[in-house]
Amino acid sequence: MTVRVAVCQLAPVLGDPGGNLDRALRAVAAAADRGARIVVLPELVTSGYVFADEAEARRAAQPADGPAVTALARAARDRGLVVCFGFPELDEEGRLRNSAVLADPGGVRAIYRKVHLWDREKEIFLAGDEPPPVVETELGRIGLVICYDLEFPEWLRVAALRGAQLVCAPVNWPAEPRPPGERPIEMVRVQASASVNRMFLAIADRTGTERGVEWVSGSLIVGPHGFPLAMADPAKGEQILVADCDLATADDKRISPRNDVLADRRPRLYGEVAGA
Question: Which member of 24, 57, 71, 76 lies 3.0 to 4.6 Å from 51 by CB, making a disulfide possible if both were Cys?
Answer without folding.
Answer: 57
